């Protein structure tokens, strides 16, 4: 399916007040908006606000965005980023938690399982923040274009592929260093 | 390591309302006697329907349908059990009122959903989670004597129950409202989701011709003909039987017997159906009467009955869902095939596991076997178009649905039903992005149940590699002791009809999952933590393309586990009223 044609049709339908068109846009870009917001480390509550605002802005401006219908993902990613930064500034969360790690750690049962689990969380948590951010957006379903990633994270398009490869390599080494495999063989 | 599996189960949660007041009313000893009898009733009822009483919590009883083994109709079993429990408690109350002057008022909640189930070898302890919580909350929201059914359960049993919706409520400690239905009645014998056997028959011309020819032969007598139709769940066996019954009805007496999913004696039930139909066809009841509890009497009685009927005109006996039958029905079929001297055609339809359930007998040597293959894509598209009706869904959908279902008519039917059930089917989004209909998910889960530990491990490893995979990749992923056994296990899985060997594109070292949904289900059953680890291992072992994808998947699951949920709560839909009136 040609994604860009889809999006243009959906946007036109939504602008005309067709609920199907709107739902299609939400389905297509819902996760991209959310990933972008979460990549900036907003709490789920603040994140929901930012997502809400992003979609509201789209609903308001969809009629005037005719020229950008094809690149609606880019517009949404950029708007989500702006809203996230605005909320972050307002709440000064950035200063309170510079390394805004994923919060919840599950309550594990047995001690051994807990140890293994803890290692896994550390792999994620200790990954450099720019990598967590990048992977968070890159691994969105459906996969975003590099242009969308660039808009979401304010990165140059040219560097994204290399950064992705480097971050995944880093992740892979960390997984190996934590000797996950040895653990698995033990069990 | 303890093996854990994600699986869908149905939970029945019952509690005695006002038990504190009851405790004040009764002597402790009497109270205990009353409760013990109630627990016995509950245990018996749940067991009868294949449920396991997982635990007693105070006065509450929690039963689970789907452990240790899943059934495709677990939701219906759970609802039936809940309904029957209510009836049996009413009967118990008549006794208790007489003896103690009290009655128990039971509230019940039924819910279906995903749980993380523990190893079946270690008992069936499983981690509760949201599915259980919601069942308990439905129970708490019910009035005395009421059964409240959750939305997921209702969808799976909609055609077998009468319900009325209750106002959705937000349980304590939850943010999203829970939809619920008050159970009024269960229609006994009805399927949870009625099959669309009225759908126009698509394809199957060759099969019908073959059946016609067999009937010709049987009509010539003197010996009985037997044909066994084997096919996957949902491939269209029942539909074919129905189509053949219509054709054969012109020149033969057609008797049909369907095996119920479970019960005290499936064979007795089926023979009962046949005898009743024979009676309606004018046959005198066999003398002496068929004793359904004594196989020898039953065999002989059925044979004499059919022989008598066949003197007037040829007889066709259609037996459906025979994979559910116990041995004695299979023996009856063999007996009739061997000894009935009549113009008789026996047609047995069953899933492919049947040959394995018929020990000491080569299904393929006895009589004729018809292998019912999935529909071609064109046929499935025609079926979908026929079922859709005009204007119900956007054009082009029929083709997409057919491709998704990979030629399985039941999957076509279920997906369409699912799409139609949504208030707003909306655009279909990315191809293949439809959620798997729960009834299909249940069917697929049954196929993956009953695997040995090795088989399950290998299948899961394979699912990480993909729909089509090279056995060497799976062997490379397997933990040391399993590695050398991988090929053997893969072949065993092929015999179980879960995998197929070879692939034109990928060569003879390739295996593939028979259906994409089997691969998806095997994959979904792996706890996310394990998925993440397996993807990293896959990236380590596969040096070629796909490495980044595996690493990406691994990271995605780890991040999700670490609390970074993949998807927000449903997004606002700010489009109506018209955009101009919306203000930020």
CATH superfamily of the largest domain in chain B: Nucleotide cyclase, GGDEF domain
- The end-to-end span of chain B amounts to 53 Å
**Number of strand elements of chain B:** 17
The radius of gyration of chain B is 27 Å
The level-1 CATH class of the largest domain in chain B: Alpha Beta
Percent of residues in helices of chain A:
over 70%
The largest β sheet of chain B comes out as: 8 strands, mixed
What tags apply to this protein structure?
heterodimer, A: 187 residues, mainly alpha, 10 helices, 0% strand, elongated, B: 584 residues, Alpha-Beta Plaits, Rossmann fold, Arc Repressor Mutant, subunit A, 3 domains, 21 helices, 19% strand
Overview in brief:
By secondary structure, chain A is mainly α. Helix content of chain A is 72%, strand content 0%. Chain B has 3 domains: 5-186, Alpha-Beta Plaits; 205-372, P-loop containing nucleotide triphosphate hydrolases (Rossmann fold); 444-561, Arc Repressor Mutant, subunit A (Orthogonal Bundle), CATH 1.10.10.
Q: Can you walk me through this structure?
A:
The complex is a heterodimer of chains A (187) and B (584). The radius of gyration of chain A is 19 Å and the shape is elongated. With 187 residues, chain A is mainly alpha-helical. Chain A has helices at 3-15, 19-39, 44-61, 72-91, 93-96, 111-125, 129-138, 146-153, 160-177, 180-186. Chain A has one domain (3-97, 107-186). The longest helix of chain A has 21 residues, at 19-39. Chain A starts with a helix and ends with a helix. In chain A, α2 (19-39) crosses α3 (44-61), α2 (19-39) runs antiparallel to α7 and α4 packs parallel to α8 (146-153). Chain A is built from 10 helices and no strands. With 584 residues, chain B is an alpha/beta fold. Chain B folds into 3 domains: 5-186, Nucleotide cyclase, GGDEF domain (Alpha-Beta Plaits, 2-Layer Sandwich); 205-372, P-loop containing nucleotide triphosphate hydrolases (Rossmann fold, 3-Layer(aba) Sandwich), CATH 3.40.50; 444-561, Arc Repressor Mutant, subunit A (Orthogonal Bundle). Chain B contains 21 helices and 17 strands. Chain B has helices at 19-25, 28-48, 74-99, 130-141, 151-157, 205-220, 237-248, 266-280, 295-312, 327-339, 354-357, 377-388, 397-405, 409-421, 438-448, 453-465, 471-477, 486-495, 516-524, 528-541, 547-561, and strands at 5-17, 52-57, 60-65, 105-117, 121-124, 126-127, 147-150, 161-169, 178-186, 225-231, 253-258, 315-320, 344-350, 368-372, 468-470, 499-503, 507-513. In chain B, strands 1, 2, 3, 4, 6, 7, 8 and 9 form an 8-stranded mixed beta sheet that branches. A 5-stranded parallel beta sheet of chain B has the order 11-12-13-10-14, sandwiched between helices. A 3-stranded antiparallel beta sheet of chain B has the order 15-17-16. In chain B, α13 packs across α14 (409-421) and α20 runs antiparallel to α21 (547-561). The longest helix of chain B has 26 residues, at 74-99. Chain B is globular and about 75 Å long. Classes of the chains: A mainly alpha (187), B alpha/beta (584).
């Amino acid at each position: 399916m040609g994604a860009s044609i889809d999006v243009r049709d959906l946007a036109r339908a939504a602008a005309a007040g067709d609920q199907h068109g709107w739902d299609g846009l939400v389905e297509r870009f819902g996760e991209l908006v959310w990933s972008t917001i979460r990549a900036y480390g907003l709490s789920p509550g603040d994140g929901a606000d930012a997502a809400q605002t992003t979609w509201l802005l789209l609903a308001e401006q969809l009629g005037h965005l005719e020229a950008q219908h094809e690149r609606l993902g880019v517009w949404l990613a950029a708007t989500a980023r702006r809203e996230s930064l605005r909320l972050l500034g307002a709440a000064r969360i950035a200063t309170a938690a510079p390394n805004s790690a994923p919060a919840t750690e599950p309550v594990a049962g047995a001690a051994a399982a807990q140890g293994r689990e803890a290692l896994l969380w550390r792999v994620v948590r200790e990954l450099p923040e720019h990598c967590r951010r990048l992977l968070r957006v890159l691994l969105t379903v459906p996969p975003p274009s590099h242009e969308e990633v660039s808009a979401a994270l304010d990165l140059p398009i040219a560097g994204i592929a290399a950064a992705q490869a480097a971050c995944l390599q880093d992740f892979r080494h960390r997984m190996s260093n934590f000797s996950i495999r040895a653990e698995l063989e033990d069990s | 390591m303890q093996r854990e599996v994600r699986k869908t189960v149905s939970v029945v949660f019952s509690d005695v309302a006002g038990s504190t007041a009851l405790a004040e009313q009764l002597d402790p000893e009497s109270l205990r006697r009353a409760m013990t009898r109630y627990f016995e009733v509950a245990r018996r009822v749940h067991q009868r329907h294949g449920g396991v009483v997982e635990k007693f919590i105070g006065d509450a009883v929690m039963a689970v349908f789907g452990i240790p083994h899943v059934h495709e109709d677990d939701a219906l079993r759970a609802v039936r059990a809940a309904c029957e429990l209510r009836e049996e408690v009413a009967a118990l109350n008549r006794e208790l009122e007489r003896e103690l002057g009290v009655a128990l008022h039971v509230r019940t909640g039924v819910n279906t959903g995903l749980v993380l189930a523990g190893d079946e070898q270690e008992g069936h302890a499983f981690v509760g989670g949201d599915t259980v919580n919601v069942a308990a909350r439905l129970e708490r929201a019910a009035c005395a004597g009421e059964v409240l059914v959750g939305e997921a359960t209702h969808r799976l049993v909609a055609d077998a129950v009468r319900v009325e919706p209750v106002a959705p409520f937000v349980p304590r400690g939850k943010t999203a409202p829970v939809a619920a239905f008050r159970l009024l009645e269960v229609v006994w014998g009805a399927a949870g989701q009625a099959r669309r056997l009225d759908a126009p028959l698509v394809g199957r011309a060759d099969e019908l011709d073959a059946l016609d020819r067999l009937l010709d032969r049987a009509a010539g007598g003197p010996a009985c003909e037997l044909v066994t139709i084997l096919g996957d769940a949902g491939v269209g066996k029942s539909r074919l039987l129905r189509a053949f019954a219509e054709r054969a009805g012109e020149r033969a007496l057609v008797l049909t017997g369907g095996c119920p999913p479970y019960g005290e004696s499936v064979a007795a039930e089926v023979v009962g159906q046949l005898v009743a139909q024979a009676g309606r066809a004018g046959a005198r009841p066999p003398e002496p009467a068929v004793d359904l509890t004594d196989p020898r009497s039953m065999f002989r009685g059925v044979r004499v009955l059919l022989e008598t009927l066949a003197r007037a005109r040829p007889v066709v006996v259609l037996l459906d869902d025979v994979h559910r039958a116990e041995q004695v029905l299979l023996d009856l079929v063999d007996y009739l095939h061997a000894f009935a001297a009549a113009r008789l055609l026996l047609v047995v339809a069953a899933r492919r596991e049947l040959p394995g359930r018929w020990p000491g007998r080569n299904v393929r040597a006895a009589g004729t076997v018809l292998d019912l293959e999935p529909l071609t894509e064109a046929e499935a598209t025609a079926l979908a178009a026929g079922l859709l009706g005009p204007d119900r869904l956007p054009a082009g959908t029929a083709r997409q649905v057919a491709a998704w279902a990979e030629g399985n008519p039941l999957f076509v039917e279920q997906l369409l039903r699912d799409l139609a059930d949504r208030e707003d089917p909306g655009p279909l989004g990315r191809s293949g992005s439809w959620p798997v209909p729960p009834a299909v998910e249940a069917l697929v889960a049954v196929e993956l149940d009953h695997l040995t530990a090795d088989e399950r491990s290998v299948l899961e490893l394979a699912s990480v590699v993909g729909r089509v995979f090279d056995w060497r990749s799976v062997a490379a992923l397997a933990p040391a002791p399993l590695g050398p056994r991988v090929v053997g296990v893969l072949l065993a899985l092929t015999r179980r009809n879960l995998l197929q060997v070879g692939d034109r594109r990928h060569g003879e070292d390739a295996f593939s999952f028979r259906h994409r949904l089997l691969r998806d289900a095997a994959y979904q059953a792996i706890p996310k933590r394990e998925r993440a680890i397996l993807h990293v291992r896959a990236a380590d072992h596969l040096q070629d393309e796909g490495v980044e994808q595996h690493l990406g998947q691994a990271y995605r699951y780890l991040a999700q586990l670490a609390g970074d949920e993949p998807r927000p709560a449903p997004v606002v839909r700010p489009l109506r009223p018209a955009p101009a009136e919306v203000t930020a």
